[in-house]
Amino acid sequence: MSIIRPITNDTVHRICSGQVITDLASAVKELVENALDAGATTIEVRIKNYGLDSIEVSDNGSGISKEDQESIGKKHYTSKIEAFGDLDTLETFGFRGEALSSLCSVSDVTITTATALESPKGLQLKLDHEGSVISKSTVASQKGTMVSIHNLFSTLPVRRKVFERNCRRDFSKSISLLQAYAVISIEKKFIIFHQTKASGKVVQFSTNMNSDINLNIMNIFGTKLSSNLVRWQDGFIEGYISRPHVGSVRLSSDKQMVFINRRPISLPKLVKAIQEVFKMYSMSQAPFFAINLTLTEGTVDVNVSPDKRSVFLSEENFIIDFVRESLQRLCEGTAHSLTESKLQ
Ligand code: ADP
Ligand code: MG
């Protein structure tokens, strides 16, 4: 008697969704990436009660056309790639077509959307846990999309309990991630609200259509931090880092942001290398930095993990060595190609 059977689609969906949306931060990140991919210039995030009550992301992007509305919650349905080879020239954050379907599987999703043709009228769609549209109603809506998530992880009781226990930590991880997207987004406006019963609606941070990331840094982290940064521009590296040689002045933040081709990523080896070099020149313990590495097509593989934060780099050692040597030159102040600019 055979004992090996296929798992039903519904079960596969639930198993995999828990890996795409692992915590509040991954839910927020997927929604913001979708807004950016839709060409939005204004992105508003509203989180209620550390995300336990709701998360809402509104954008003024393309909107979702009527023809696509039934597909939006389906697993592996995407408008961003058609074939594997498209990954080499990918210009969008998303490509796996699984964020919205996974969010449907683990929460209650409502989407309000209007394209330029339909605005000021739009449609509000409610989706079920399988990603099917269960109700549609006409509402007033400007061009763009608003995705609302309620009861995150209500379908995964253990994870909901963990979320309730760790909601403050998850919330601050989400804010850090949002800061990274806001820092790297030029000429876009981000505004992030958090609402609790105790404190009402509070703006966490905002940016305002800035033309350089140093102004984004200033909007988000304040002038005290931004005025202590130096510009770091060398070969494929572009960004800002804490001014070395600041003596015993302790820096107020130790945030480290690495972007590859403007995608926020996690590359602990590179962060460690930067910290090591910086320590040799500075008393402050950890530098703030936000750097973008412009790498050529075909040398970066972003399809390593469902959250697309991990990457494989075919020239990893070369890149890390170059960054290390470049920072040494910057710290020694010898490289004439490096310009130092004090931010206002
Ligand atoms: P992916 O981003 O990998 O394509 P998602 O599940 O995140 O997968 O989204 C599925 C599709 O829904 C996207 O390809 C896009 O066409 C559409 N979509 C999602 N969010 C938005 C949005 N905010 N504005 C416009 N279209 C959107
Ligand atoms: Mg997406």
UniProtKB/TrEMBL annotation:
Q: Residue limits of the DNA mismatch repair protein S5 domain?
A: 217-332
Q: From the record, give the transmembrane residue ranges.
A: none
Q: Which superkingdom does the taxonomy of this entry point to?
A: Eukaryota
* Recorded family membership: Belongs to the DNA mismatch repair MutL/HexB family.
Protein name per its UniProtKB record: DNA mismatch repair protein PMS1
Lineage, please?
Eukaryota, Fungi, Dikarya, Ascomycota, Taphrinomycotina
Q: Which gene encodes it?
A: pms1
